[in-house]
Amino acid sequence: EPGEPLRRPYEEFVSGLSLPAELVGSEAAQAVGLTGTHLFIIPAFFELLLHLKRAGRSFSLVFRTFGTDLKDVVAEFNGFCEGKHPLFPNAVFDGRDGWTDYRVSFEDPSTFGTFFRSADG
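RESULT FIELD:
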């Protein structure tokens, strides 16, 4: 099979997106939109955000999705920001500590921007 050399890296990546078995179906996971067995955002991304904050760095974020999963990504991300993510329960990215509030609110256009690409280019 042509893709066989990539099988091991693929399986490692998918494994890294798996929600630990003890959290699957838990109230904590469901509270941040994790209703299945996989995460929407790789944990290393959250680790990077924690590192940037510890280093005192300001930053901006861009989520690139296919559009249909943006609400799921935002639910997990906002849960992380509010310290509700089951893997990162002590994260504070919602402004309550005086730092920037990174949460996305679809009701507040100042918290996000959207670009669309159509068949026309």
